[in-house]
Specification:
There is one protein chain. By secondary structure, this protein is an alpha+beta fold. It contains ten helices and 21 strands. The structure holds zinc ion (ZN). The site of zinc ion (ZN) has 5 residues, from loops.
């Protein structure tokens, strides 16, 4: 009478069984990531379907990692759709949870009907990729394939050249590292903005490049946060491990070609509720070299904190050396806002609007300061060090002095 559906692209469940009108299931467990002295557990999401084979409506009880609703005090964020070719919408049936993996749901299925359930807003991979191509075409972007995923899928980027030429600074945007997080909403919103008249000055003076689905295999496999080799390469961004993580190798090669002045990487909170607030991870300004870039980063931070009402993440996470943002700032003095977290609890339209605001506000900071050329914004890249060991040592020392050391001393010296 009742069937579990997990045989579609993007289905994400750790196994389950049906007993009468009751479904007992587990959340999928991918490997736990250890990087930068912390552990990162992404095993919280589910996306699956139910099919009623009977002639009558069927009230179903779904128990994920629990026996029933007892002791589950919270109302989880649940999205549902009767068909996979329709967008998921907030569910209206009873649901309880513990703010983590334990979730109890009580949907009713129509006769011979299906219902797909998720504790996120799932982005169906094929529709997502097709929609991005449409948005790129509307904005006159160049679509490029910058590599192949481990399972041979195209890694796609959209490039919007600056009308004023190749010397203009580049804004680089990524999303889609962690498939259950609907952070691709931000990339879509930015691409819609780039196609609009409101972005005319930005398109004139700056170039933009978006790689909205950094981990396409993860989307098709229904992974919690990993690529096909089980690597969460947001945290383990190791471009040299091309055989395990070709996605990281290709993304780093793209980033090196772009030498971006500004980098956003979008993520999204989903099940976390009021425990988390939308906003950027902020790293200390002394990470940046030179007063110009430090001042620009500070102005952008101020504009972003206005948007989030002060919501942001500081502390150890933003300093993680293993991530792409750290590499970009070390090498190209790129101002980075990664991970920038949307929050699904605000709703899908608000997530889109928030993502667009994040980028347009920071871009406005560059336009207002007239810092729009690559050479104005980038300090001397560490990648361009001289070969001679003594001169190299001097260059690195200078960079250290200009960056962390002076930045650390400045508040102590009161200047
Ligand atoms: Zn994430």
């Amino acid at each position: 009478m009742l069937e579990l559906i997990t045989d579609f692209d993007g289905a994400n469940l750790g196994g389950g069984s049906v007993r009468g009108n009751r479904v007992l299931a587990k959340v999928r467990r991918d490997p736990i990531t250890r990087a930068d002295g912390s552990t990162h557990d992404y095993n919280y999401h589910f996306i699956f379907g139910l099919r009623n084979l009977g002639d009558a409506p069927l009230s179903v009880e779904v128990c994920l990692e629990c026996e029933g609703p007892d002791g589950l005090e919270q109302t989880p964020l649940v999205y549902a759709t009767p068909a996979l070719d329709q967008d998921f919408a907030p569910a209206v049936f009873p649901a309880r949870g513990d703010g983590a993996r334990r979730t109890w749901l009580q949907p009713t299925l129509p006769p011979h009907g299906e219902l797909y359930l998720a504790n996120t807003f799932p982005r169906r991979p094929e529709a997502l990729l097709a929609g991005l191509d449409d948005l790129a075409a509307q904005g006159g972007a160049r679509r490029g394939v910058y590599g192949q995923s481990l399972q041979g899928r195209d890694l796609t980027a959209y490039y919007y050249p600056a009308a004023q030429g190749p010397r203009q600074a580049c804004v680089f945007i990524t999303s889609g590292f962690h498939p259950p997080e609907p952070d691709t909403l931000a990339s879509e919103a930015v691409m819609a903005w780039l196609a609009s008249d409101q972005a005319a000055e930005a398109r004139q003076k700056l170039s933009f490049c978006l790689a909205p689905v950094a981990n396409p295999d993860g989307f098709f496999l229904g992974a919690q946060g990993h690529n096909a080799a089980g690597v969460n390469f947001y945290w383990e961004f190791q471009p040299k491990q091309e055989e395990r993580i070709p996605e990281a190798a290709a993304l780093w090669a793209l980033a090196k070609r772009l030498q971006p002045s500004l980098y956003f990487d979008f993520h999204a909170y989903t099940f976390q509720g009021a425990a988390k607030q939308a906003g950027p991870y902020l790293k200390p300004l002394w990470f940046y070299r030179g007063d110009t870039v430090r001042g620009l980063a500070q102005d952008m931070e101020t504009r972003l904190l206005e948007l989030t009402g002060g919501g942001c993440m500081r502390g150890a996470s933003p300093l993680a050396r293993s991530t792409l943002q750290a590499r970009l700032t070390t090498r190209y003095n790129t101002v980075t806002f990664a991970k920038y977290h949307l929050h699904l609890a605000q709703g899908v339209p608000a997530c889109r609007e928030h993502g667009c605001q994040v980028v347009s506000r920071c871009v406005q900071a560059m336009l207002d300061a007239d810092l729009i050329r690559r050479d104005q914004v980038l300090a001397r890249p560490w990648g361009a060090q001289p070969r001679d060991p003594l001169r190299k040592l001097r260059a690195v020392s200078e960079a250290l002095w200009e960056g962390p050391v002076k930045g650390f001393l400045r508040p102590l010296l009161g200047r």
